[in-house]
Amino acid sequence: MTTRFWKFANPHHFGKLVAISTPVLWLFSFLLLMTGLLWGFFFTPDDFRQGSTVKIIFVHVPSALMAINCWLMMLVSSIIWMVRRHRISILAAKAAAPVGLSFTLVALISGGLWGQPMWGTFWAWDPRLTSFLILFLHYITYQLTWMYIADKESAANISSLVCLVGSVFALLSRYAINLWNQGLHQGATLSLDQETNIHNAYYIPLVICILGFVLLFITLVLVRTRTEIIYNQIELLEKQGRKHNA
Amino acid sequence: MPDLGAYSFFVLTSYGITILVLLGLCMLTVSQYQSAKRKLARLNEK
Predict the structure, then answer these.
(1) CA dihedral over A17, A18, A19, A24, signed as positive or negative
(2) B13, B17, B43: residue with CB nearest A237
(3) Taking Cα atoms as reference points, which of A65, A63, A95 lies closest to residue A81?
(4) A189-197: which pairs have CB atoms within 8 A and are 24 or more residues apart?
(5) B39: nearest CA in chain A?
């Protein structure tokens, strides 16, 4: 099993995996997202307290969940890079960063748009909101590291360190509500270790939306990692060409 | 269209921004992949 996993550290095998899996992944992520979002928007009732703003849950919760999980995936990839020096693992982390950044942005904006009518403000320096903003800033730092450090090896090492530091805030975003029982943000909507505190009318479309976001994330990361591998091959060919011409 | 009442701006804006960001990300990802593939093919031909 482990050997089969490491097989995909080979760019050729990874390319094959992407070519086979992505058409199916695109289709299922699109179908799940369409079903979940349309169901959530059109066919769920208003909440007795929050009114129609409860519909924001179908975009806010999945994007926030994936923003944190994306960083944790980048953390695992970065650790693999630091320990085993597998180039594809660091390219996967690099490929995931813009996806995570986009999810974080969506979570922050949709959270503000939900907060204004419910709390009376777009923003509050609440533990979860603040740690999420710091996570967003870490995503930007991570992107900048790759953009502005010319040497790929150094960029990979420094970005892995940024990832390690940022993971503290990713975990804080996840557990801030349990650590500090204060602030405006409510407790977890879904939890694996507790009873769910959401009505079935919202639960099923929400789970469908989350699955859609997860599949979309996997699809995007696979395609983007493949693109990064191709960029590396292009760079190598161009170097060889320059040597040949000289 | 469901009746969103006084909160329609907040609900519609959050859905609109989400769809826009996700669509943009998907289009960017696919276009970068296609252009990288084309460039690699051109280099291999040389």
Answers:
(1) positive
(2) B43
(3) A95
(4) A189/A57, A189/A61, A190/A61
(5) A234
Q: How many CB atoms lie within 10 A of CB A110?
A: 25
- Chain A residues with CB inside 8 Å of B29's CB? 220, 223-224, 227
Minimal Cα distance from A108: which residue of B? B14
Q: Note the pLDDT tens digit of each residue in A197-231.
A: 678 888 999 999 999 999 999 999 999 999 999 99
If one counts every other C-beta atom within 10 angstroms of the C-beta of residue A146, the result is 19
Measure the CA–CA gap between A222 and A16, rounded to whole angstroms: 11
The pLDDT-based confidence of A186 (bands split at 50, 70, 90) is low
Q: Do B32 and A227 touch (CB under 8 A)?
A: yes
Give B21's contacts in chain A (Cβ within 8 Å). 102, 105-106
Q: With 90 as the cut, is the pLDDT of residue B40 above it? A: yes
Reported as a pLDDT band with limits 50, 70 and 90, residue A77 is very high
